[in-house]
Design brief:
By secondary structure, this protein is mainly α. 62% of the residues lie in helices and 0% in strands.
Length: 383
């Protein structure tokens, strides 16, 4: 029914255009009651009607697409076969419409020699079922890449480090630009250099999972690796790949600025480097986050600065959502001489913290759970 109404509306649109074309003396200044179309050609009419009827596009979107893309009305079976193939791979109507708006030229693809082999290859390498439809609808340019010269070489390269379809799917969905990257000019030289420097294969796997690290210019990679090594981390160290990720995310000037900020917070340079080697992400946190964390740990919790140097991960934990609720609970329990708190209590998982420090003390400390969850009843607990 909706398709028939759409077809009738389109015919009315072209009928009006045809009449206006014949009435050359009529003015075109009045506001049209339907979207304007720049051409009244037969191919444009066919394209718009196909986009509405077979692809599910709204008329306005179909008109917009037809301005930059035309179908061959003498071969309507080709676009129909494309739509049928997509739906056989569980593309929803919404995903089909989204894909066509972004990448209409897929409707010109040859199914047997082009589109079908690509979709089947993606499926064989982990992008099966709904994952395939979600990936292609969100990254339509991926389907436009050459299967033999780009898609296959990229997948084969990644698979040499990733040993499962699940990891392959994770990487491609998270980092679709890998399929567009110059494999031999960027990715391969970067990986070859990292392996030559001594980064183990499991470290390469992590770097691939990071995504953007491997997209760097090889010269940038060389600089970052040498910078991390100069800070005391060897390529085979567990923290090296994380330090490399942080270093690549910063320019030299940003790095110097962050070091200067840490010094302004009272840290010595050797403490900064020690903390970085233990938890590289500590220097990736914003200055506001670090400042807020330092204030709470040093002034409210009264921790020693050396404790933060030894446990730099603390700088990245949410003060309001994680640390303060735990501190409130621990403070009450310690004041009642029920426990002797330690720094590990801030680092364990939420599940373990609640089990160890909340659940078992609820009978002895009414309102403890409410305090932990941030309820107003927390004010009713007396130390």
């Amino acid at each position: 029914m909706a398709s028939k109404l759409g077809s009738n509306l389109i015919r009315n649109v072209f009928s009006q255009i045809h009449k206006r074309f014949l009435q050359s003396s009529a003015t075109l200044s009045s506001t049209p009651s339907v979207p304007d179309i720049r051409t009244s050609s037969s191919s444009s009419s066919f394209t718009v009607q196909f986009l509405v009827d077979s692809c599910g596009l709204p008329l306005k979107s179909a008109l917009s697409v037809s301005d930059r893309f035309q179908l061959d009305e003498t071969n309507p079976q080709k676009p129909h076969s494309v739509i049928q193939l997509l739906k056989s791979h569980r593309f929803s109507d919404t995903q089909v419409a989204k894909l066509i708006v972004k990448y209409p030229k897929i409707l010109r693809f040859k199914v047997k020699n082009n589109l079908q082999p690509k979709l089947e290859y993606f499926v064989q390498n982990g992008l099966a079922g709904e994952l395939l439809a979600q990936f292609i609808a969100s990254n339509p340019s991926a389907i436009g890449r050459s299967l033999d010269s780009q898609i296959k070489p990229c997948f084969e390269f990644l698979r040499s480090f990733l040993n499962s379809n699940e990891k392959m799917a994770t990487v491609i969905i998270r980092s679709p630009w890998f399929l567009q990257l110059n494999l031999n000019g960027i990715m391969r030289p970067n990986v070859d250099f990292l392996m030559k420097e001594g980064v183990p294969s499991h470290g390469i796997e992590k770097i691939i999972l990071f995504g953007r690290v491997l997209t760097q210019n090889p010269k940038t990679m060389v600089y970052a690796v040498n910078a991390v090594k100069n800070l005391g981390l060897e390529p085979n160290a567990p923290m090296f790949v994380y330090a490399l990720r942080v270093m690549i995310s910063m320019s030299a000037s940003t790095w110097e600025k962050k070091i200067g900020f840490m010094k302004s917070m009272g840290w010595k340079e050797e403490d900064i480097l020690m903390a970085f080697n233990r938890h590289p992400y500590c220097l990736a946190f914003s200055e506001a986050k670090i400042s807020n964390a330092m204030h709470f740990y040093l002034n409210t919790m009264k921790l020693e600065p050396k404790t933060l140097v030894a446990n730099p991960i603390l700088l990245g934990l949410s003060i309001e959502k994680r640390i303060r609720p735990r501190y409130n609970v621990l403070n009450v329990l310690e004041s009642k001489k029920l426990i002797k708190s330690n720094i590990r209590s801030l680092l364990i998982s939420e599940k373990d913290f609640q089990k160890k420090y909340v659940d078992q003390y609820i009978p002895k400390v009414p309102g403890l759970l409410e305090m932990y969850l941030g309820s107003k009843e927390s004010k009713n607990i007396d130390p």
